[in-house]
Each structure stands twice: as C-alpha cells, then as structure tokens.
Amino acid sequence: MKKVISFAAVLILCLSILAGCGAKDVNLGDVLDKMNTEYSVDATKYETKEDMYKYYNINADDIKQFAAEVGKSDTDSKNTEVVLVEATDSDAASRVETALTNRYNSIFQQNASYSAEELDMVKNCKVTKDGNFVTMIIGEKASDMLTMFNDSIK
Is the Cβ–Cβ distance between 138 and 111 less than 8 Å? Predict the structure, then answer.
C-alpha cells in the first residue's frame, strides 16, 4: 500500500512539473506597449507598486508584475484605463480582482452621473481574471485589447 501511495505521489509531482513547462512567460509591459502601438492610447503610465496602491488599493505584496495606464485615446475623446496585473498567487489575484472591480464600479458610477455616452462605453468593459492574471480594460477598443491580452498569456 505504501508503494502505491508513493508511486501516486511521484506521478502527481511529475505531472505538475510537466504542466508548468507549458506556461508562457509574459512581460506585461511589453503587452501594454503592443496595445499602445495597435490602439494609439495616449496615457500616463503608473510606474511603481506604490502607484498601484495609491490609485487601486492593490498591495505591493500581491503584485508579481503589472502594467497600467490612464488617459485619453488619440482616436476619440473617450477615457481609457488599462490595468494588467500578474498576482503573486491565486489569493492575491482574488484581492486584485476585488480592488479593480471597486475601481470599475467607481468609474461606472461617475459616468452614470455625468456622461451617458461614456457610460455606454464603460458598460461594455469589464474586470477579468484568468489564473493569476487580472485585468481592467476600459476604452472604446477594450474588447480588442482584452483579446490581445488573452492571446499573449495563452
């Protein structure tokens, strides 16, 4: 019985190692640069984990890497906000998702009060979580940007 349990444990360990081999190493800064090239986002970059805490209430310990920009699109007057985060683990990803959802809800409420046109745009945007990756992409081309992001992490 001990041999069967030991064999099963070794098999599980080997399978988890092999599963990790397929994981893609992604640089979120490069992904955001590609989005900027493709969709002409003229935005202010957040550079530090302190910025992520200040603007999104995301703790530095929860962030493995991130890329974030806020600004106006060159192609129209709509607000654009792109936040890409790789969290340190699944619990951190859940906390990041909550923080970005709070930010999204704030943007939604602000536009509900002041700009019906931009509210329609915000309604078509969302916060997403895929493993340890969490995004909030708000803008006219948010769907296309999200597709680009998802393609980059697969």
Answer: no
